[in-house]
Write a structure and sequence with these properties.
Blueprint lengths: L1 E4 L5 H11 L4 E4 L10 H4 L9 E3 L5 E3 L1 H11 L10 H27 L11 H22 L12 H16 L5 H11 L2 H11 L1
Parallel strand pairs: 1-2
Antiparallel strand pairs: 1-3, 3-4
Length: about 200
């Protein structure tokens, strides 16, 4: 497998999942800051121009965060990265979709890439403020839904890796999240898989 990632992007969460699984994989850095995700070479891999993308050994490519996370968890049951039972799996997918589809774009992309949403340069401050307020609200929802040390209680899952990239973005946005989220981030930072992913991405 090969993970296409950009340092500090949401792809960090998938990077962590791959490290947790322990299956062989390689990485290719695609810097979204430099626009490498929009160059023909990468668009040939993922025409959506987004990270993460996961190239499988058969040559096929999976895109979109929830899809990649669910694939890796289901394809590697020994890692036990999904809660047990269909209903619990759906709950996990719901959290993944909320983080990737709502918290990410509405809360943080608005802060980090305000020009995409603003009418003009003068409107960017409003967009950033709206994004910050939304992010703080979403973090409250996520904190209320923590069921224990991990998102689903005693069991660590792919949902924790998704929450982690948002926690890292709080640092970047200078947002102080609820205490439960801060405590979760510290537990994540103590995991060897997380440490390996961060080391690779900072190199």
């Amino acid at each position: 497998m090969k993970l296409f990632y950009s340092p500090g992007a949401c792809s960090l969460g998938i990077h962590v999942v791959l490290e947790e699984i322990g299956a062989p994989f390689t990485t290719q850095r695609i810097s979204t800051r430099d626009g490498a995700n929009l160059k023909p070479e990468y668009l040939a891999v993922n025409p959506k121009g987004k990270v993460p993308a996961l190239a499988l050994d058969d040559g096929s490519v999976i895109t979109e965060y929830p899809a990649i996370a669910m694939y890796l968890a289901r394809a590697n049951p020994g890692a036990k990265l999904l809660p047990e039972g269909l209903r619990a799996e759906i709950d996990c997918l719901s959290i993944l979709d909320y983080i990737a589809g709502t918290v990410h774009p509405m809360g943080f992309t608005r802060q980090f890439r305000a020009a995409r949403f603003a009418k003009d340069a003068a409107d960017e401050a409003r967009v950033i403020a709206d994004g910050r307020a939304a992010a703080e609200s979403y973090l409250g929802v996520l904190a209320e839904n923590l069921r224990g040390p991990w998102v689903f209680g005693a069991q660590y899952t792919v949902a924790d890796s998704a929450l982690f990239f948002i926690e890292q973005w709080c640092d970047r946005a200078k947002i102080i999240p609820p205490p439960a989220i801060l405590a979760h981030q510290q537990r994540m930072l103590a995991r060897p898989a997380v440490q390996r992913a961060l080391t690779t991405e900072s190199a």
